[in-house]
Hints:
- This protein is mainly β.
- Helices cover 10% and strands 40% of the residues.
- The strands form seven sheets. Strands 21, 22, 23, 24, 25, 26, 27, 28, 29, 30, 31, 32 and 33 form a 13-stranded mixed sheet that branches. The chain has a five-stranded antiparallel sheet with strand order 4-5-6-10-8, covered by helices on one side. The chain has a four-stranded antiparallel sheet with strand order 17-16-19-20, with no helix packed on it.
- Strand 26 and strand 27 form a beta hairpin.
- It starts with 6 loop residues before the first strand and ends with a strand.
Amino acid sequence: MFDQLDCIVMHxxxxxxxxxxxxxxxxxQLNDLLKQYGQQExxxxxxxFGWTASEGTWQPHVDRWTQxxxxxxxLALGWSQGIDGMAYFVLQYKTKNTGEAAFSLIDEQGRPxxxxxxxxxVSRWFAASTPxxxxxxxxxxxxxMGHRDGKLQMAxxxxxxxxxxxxxxxxxxxxxxxxKPLDVSTVFTVSEDPIYLQADQEGLTSLPTRQVVTTMDMxxxxxxxxxxxxxxxxxxGTLKPGKYAGFVKIDGHWQVQxxxxxxxxxxxxxxxxxxxxxETPKLMATLRSNQSDQTQQVTLWLDQTPQKKTQLDxxxxxxxxxxxxxxxxxxxxxxxxxxxxxxxxxxVTEHSITWTPMQATRNDGSTQGTWADFTAWAPFxxxxxxxxxxxxQAKTRMTYSEQGLRVQVQVTDDEHHQPYVKTEPQKTWxxxxxxxxxxxxxxxxxxxxxxxxxxxxxxxxxxxxxxxGSTANAFCNRSYxxxxxxxxxxxxxxxxVTREQHxxxxxxxxxxxxxxxxxxxxxxxxxxxxxxxxxxxxxxKAGRHGLRLFRGxxxxxxxxxxxKVWLQ
Length: 568
């Protein structure tokens, strides 16, 4: 396939998250994939990405200053990875939708916003500069570097606060995020606003990265390192665990030495499970010892039950798991569980997980499932003026059988408006309807570059279910499965939409074959799931708004944000 492509073009929106997260991770994954197939010379262009500074659109908003930071940092990160061209969205976009308009770096009155100046600053600093790379100096401090005309061009920033950073290069020029000159020094104050540095190149055209050293004490690293933070070499006990890097000169040439700083004992994962033989979900904590010569004792307890403490002995280099029952969990209710862990030195650390329990019960003819209200999970949009208190409320229940997965949704709504179901089913999502999305392979790892086998190896589907009192149907919006056609009605999906007074009930039976499944799923299986209630109220001049149970459908399309449904 690559041989047939002149270049790769993609949009790079990341749901309002910082550019160091999914934005940068996906660029790295793409470059790794191209290298894997010997296509690293293929041109790559990001033709649209950005952050909005106002609510009202599909993407969560940030403030104007954060927008400026993200614009500068995203452009610096993309440049550092050799992206051939980046088109930031947008210089100025005139529209009545305030959320879409606020992507603009020049507002509707023609006034430049901070992001405009930040965009200009980063563009000028790295213009015609050849990228060398990106380096993570601490868990929160990032550096990108390139060279031009015998000089090094760099950017530094801290994603979580303020740090004092020093570099082993002869700095000759410095500027802030907007291009304003800074005093040249040996130590620079670095914040979430990137600063730009220039240094003598001294023949440096690359900055090789050595093999990662994993340690519990930075002083155990054998090389004579130049530390970006003085505390990395003198006050190692104050450092948080995570990724660090120092500089070392080998045969007269600078190299980067990455260091993974770990605790003697750490909680490596928190995971929600729901065993078939359990009436309630379980929280499983996995602990790992990095000590090679002694057993460590740890005490754990949940925030809501501090009187119930569990003690574990973790052997040298060992792994142990502890499982907590979650008896007070309620279906479709988002909650946060906090685990406290007391280490051998007496220090107590906290670890949290946000999760939502949801199940589908076996329909044996007598079991109908349990209704679960999800009105408060994550509403979106605005219901308009004079909306009644009970406008747009919803509950759902799920069951399964040999025939398929049954999803029922009961919506309370003062108006039901669905003009598209008979003539334009592809538009039904834009009026009163529900949207269902399923990932059959939710427990599998995501695999970039898997072609012809779903979305990164996952079979993912999305449907809109709509009805107007006489007609009801299921329209497939998305299908990452060659055997299931998208952008078409799916008549094998059984749908009923009934309306009585202010209540609309959607009753949907999705055959397993419509999910690419040859044999019926059974108790113990887990599927990825997301549900959206769309509501449009033209009498109150209220545009599309609604409810969500899990993310990944409304406002952003991202199957990685689906929740989990356990088959019981």
